[in-house]
């Protein structure tokens, strides 16, 4: 009677539920060839990147916010909570907070409304739709600092073309100062941001629209639903994840606004367009106080985490309902 050769494969692990887990590596197999080691090797570069460029700077900022830390002198020891009280007692702190919130609300409403309208216009595959999608998206390929410099030239009352065109058309008698008053500076900056990012958010919403099955719209039309009813009852509910993503990106980017105001207005006129991030820049590099700037940064980070948590919770409740 032939003798069976022994089975050299290791027995599989069994979970408490009785299901087989990953089998044990065969004898003689190197540990670095296992799936766990390969997964660890793939994750290590990202973990190192996050640690070096996010976690360690975050810990350093936290230490700065609790220390007397001039820009050129270094750490002089703990002084908590003096930096936080100094940050909130700054003359420009509350005006900067109010202006940043106002700017965020205006940009979010206008930008998301326009992006949704553009996505609906180019949703259908019709002649010229691809061309308009490209045209709408092109401004987002330009860097924000470069776009701000471009609009700074366009807005210039002496060398810019916009003011001279308005004068030639007879709409104005004198050169227009697009950045000369607080209201005009705010609206001019909002126009820049909408021009720059409307195509980007349009693309996100367009992807969400194209994921909705056409059969749903056809069934609604066969039942006699109007376009407005289809939009309210089908398009918006099924587009909620894409809208939530665009809302999250828009709110976060608006609260962290810096480049556009730094290039266009420098915080003027009369410090009326100073954002919170500009205030951090002033404390760090003009007043040479890294401690107060770090305290402001920690406060901004806390507000952003809170807002993101509220948005995610609201989205989850909406999906469960």
Please, could you describe this protein's structure?
The chain has 321 residues and is mostly helical. Helix content is 65%, strand content 2%. It has helices at residues 35-65, 82-89, 93-121, 129-137, 144-155, 161-168, 182-210, 214-222, 227-238, 240-255, 259-264, 276-285, 290-320; strands spanning 12-14, 20-23. A two-stranded antiparallel ribbon has the order 1-2. The chain is globular. The termini are far apart. The model has no long low-confidence stretch (mean pLDDT 85).
> What is the helix tally?
13
* Residue runs with pLDDT of under 50 for 5 or more positions: none
Helix content: 55-70%
Question: What is the N-to-C succession of helices and strands?
Answer: EEHHHHHHHHHHHHH
Structural class: mainly alpha
Strand order of the largest sheet: 1-2
Q: In total, how many beta strands?
A: 2
Which outline best applies? globular
* Main beta-sheet strand count, sense and barrel state: 2 strands, antiparallel
Which value, in Å, is the CA radius of gyration? 28 Å
The proportion of residues in beta strands is under 5%
Q: Please tell me the overall pLDDT.
A: 85
CA(first)-CA(last) distance: 68 Å
Give a nutshell description of this structure.
With about 325 residues, the protein is mainly alpha-helical. It is built from 13 helices and 2 strands. A hairpin with a 5-residue loop joins strand 1 (about 10-15) and strand 2 (about 20-25).
Task: Please supply descriptive tags for the structure shown above.
single chain; mainly alpha; 321 residues; two-stranded antiparallel sheet
Question: Secondary-structure blueprint of this entry?
Answer:
Blueprint: E1 12-14, E2 20-23, H1 35-65, H2 82-89, H3 93-121, H4 129-137, H5 144-155, H6 161-168, H7 182-210, H8 214-222, H9 227-238, H10 240-255, H11 259-264, H12 276-285, H13 290-320
Antiparallel strand pairs: 1-2
Helix pairs in contact: 1-13, 2-13, 3-7, 3-10, 4-7, 7-10, 10-13, 12-13
């Amino acid at each position: 009677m032939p003798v069976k050769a022994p089975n050299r494969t290791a027995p599989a692990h069994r979970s408490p539920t009785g299901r087989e887990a990953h089998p044990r590596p065969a004898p003689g197999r190197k540990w670095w060839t296992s799936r766990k080691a390969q997964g660890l090797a793939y994750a290590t570069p990202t973990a190192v990147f996050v640690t070096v460029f996010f976690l360690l700077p975050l810990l350093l900022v936290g230490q700065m916010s609790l220390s007397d830390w001039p820009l050129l002198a270094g750490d002089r020891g703990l002084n908590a909570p003096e930096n936080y009280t100094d940050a909130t007692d700054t003359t420009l702190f509350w005006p900067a907070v109010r202006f940043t919130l106002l700017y965020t609300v205006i940009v979010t409403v206008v930008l998301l409304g326009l992006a949704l309208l553009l996505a609906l216009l180019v949703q259908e595959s019709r002649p010229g739709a691809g061309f308009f999608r490209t045209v709408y998206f092109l401004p987002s390929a330009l860097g924000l600092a470069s776009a701000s410099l471009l609009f700074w030239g366009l807005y210039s009352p002496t060398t810019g073309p916009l003011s001279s065109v308005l004068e030639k058309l007879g709409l104005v008698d004198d050169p227009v100062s697009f950045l000369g008053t607080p209201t005009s500076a705010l609206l001019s900056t909002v126009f820049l941001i909408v021009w720059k990012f409307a195509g980007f958010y349009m693309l996100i919403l367009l992807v969400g629209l194209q994921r909705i099955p056409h059969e749903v719209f056809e069934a609604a039309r066969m039942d006699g639903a109007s376009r407005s009813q289809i939009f309210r009852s089908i398009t918006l509910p099924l587009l909620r994840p894409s809208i939530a993503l665009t809302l999250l990106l828009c709110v976060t980017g608006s609260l962290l606004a810096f480049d556009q105001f730094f290039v266009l207005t420098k915080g003027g006129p009369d410090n009326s367009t100073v954002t919170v991030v500009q205030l951090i820049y002033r404390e760090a590099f003009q007043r040479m106080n890294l401690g107060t700037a770090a305290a402001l940064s920690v406060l901004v980070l806390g507000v952003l985490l809170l807002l993101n948590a509220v948005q995610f919770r609201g989205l989850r409740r909406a999906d469960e309902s």
